[in-house]
Records
---
Amino acid sequence: MTSRSTLATKAYRELRGAIASGRLRSGAALLEADIARMLNVSRTPVREALLRLELEGYAQRDESDRLLVRESTRCDISNWFVIRDLMESYAVRLAAERISDEELEELDDLIAEDAEALKEGRVDRLATLNEQVHNLLYRASRNRALLDLVRRLRGRVYGMSAFAVGGAGEQEAFVREHAELARLLREGAGERAAEIVGDHLQRARDLLAQAPRPDDDREPGSLQASGETLDESR
């Protein structure tokens, strides 16, 4: 028999994944009954999962005390990318020294898929490949503490992809930089690879910052609800 804590953890992971991927958009109402029905569990583990999401900042309450998916502000985006730049620049320097031949081959395969997805205009696929490329960079660093930090911070800019707000020119630049990173890692050029990562993340940050966001000084309780709820049709 599955324990309540296990069910609560599963519900938490499902909801956090839906928020981070954008399947649950900013301002969506998180209703216990709807979520419990969708996940086929009782309301108790859902309640525990929602409390955890609220404590971790993925959700917040409006003036009516409804729990909503929290929207990232421009300040959130800027702060996250500062941290990510520091972590990823360090990771790529380590990866240049530690990446294996098998990982280089895996990276080459991702780059080939990247180019094909760009040619076909498959934006969703480009976003997925972008995440896979960056995951490989972290993995190749062989730094467990760094990997743990990345896992904890992942998805803090909820439901946003630079590919979703960038045009063809930006998408082409991202793919080109991925290919350049692969070449530099193969050559062991960690410092130059870190510079490319910095430029890459700066572009992503600028694109995300262009999207409409709540004002940085807005009180959390004043976030406008979208009226959206999580139900079985999503």
Note: The radius of gyration is 19 Å.
---
Amino acid sequence: MKIMEIRDLQYSYGNLKVLKGVDMDFYKGVFYGILGPNGCGKSTLLKNLYGYLKPSAGTIVLSEVNIRHMNPRERARNIAYVPQDSHIGFDFSVFDIIAMGRNPYHSALDNLSSHDIEQIEKAMKETSTTHLRNKSINELSGGEKQRTLIARAFAQDSDIILMDEPVSMLDINHQVEIMDLARSLADNMNKTIVCVMHDLNLAAQYTQHIFLMKDGVVVRAGIPDEILDAGIIKDVYGADVFVGSNEVTGSRIVIPLSRLNNSF
């Protein structure tokens, strides 16, 4: 089932045009990767989808409703956002951070309802953060913080979860932990995950559909085996790579090739 449609989306920072006519379709329960070189508009795209930024032109239709006709509370009931930067300025507990995901459903002055508590507990269980509930967010490791922010998004009970480079500052163990969690939300909870990524190998292993961007537009879209091709990567990134098959997972594996004359 199609859940969101983007047509001719454009956005400019002053005179700098960043998004130049983006077209995308998103379906329920699918893990999408948005890839492309630095500066191609990936993070700007997510901020337009969530409403942090207002498009210069084009439409974003969510369940047959243009999101321009939704107020912020309505939009947040449909789309959750996990930012790239996990820094939290205040010393909130993990429970309090996750409880913020329920804000779209009641006034800030209202007490949490029994249903709110149920959703928070469910989010903690699904993200393995229950044991962290009373800890300060600023006492957590990078992986624990990311899990907490994903739990907040899950507690929001939105069909779509946007993630902006959720593993860019994590070690390999925590990268796998977060990507496993994101994929399980798509597979087991029927969430639509839209994830901006840099790591082509993680994209190959976890995503089900890739949008490849360059210079503010989508230049390729399809399953990872179609998109992660040496010729396509060379055209988009300007990098020479070897593309093979991962003997363990069966997914594509991308190895960048050195530009030095002598091999190592």
Note: Residues 205 and 249 are 7 Å apart (CA to CA).
---
Amino acid sequence: MEVTSNIYHGDSKEVLKQLPANSVDLIVTSPPYADQRKNTYGGIHPDQYVKWFLPISEQLLRVLKPSGTFILNIKEKVFI
């Protein structure tokens, strides 16, 4: 069995569109913590977070194999 690893770096809204459906075994992601990372990501108001993340999650589901694993690292509040 051959095992290959690829790390994709970039805006997930664009990079995921380039990947074929059902082609990824493992997705590990830690999206921005809403408005807690304003200086880094521009900030997302907590009330808009789900609306912002849904299009990304649709692409994650599209590329993940049925036997794949998805790990989402997220907290409800971060103090800097």
Note: The mean pLDDT is 83.
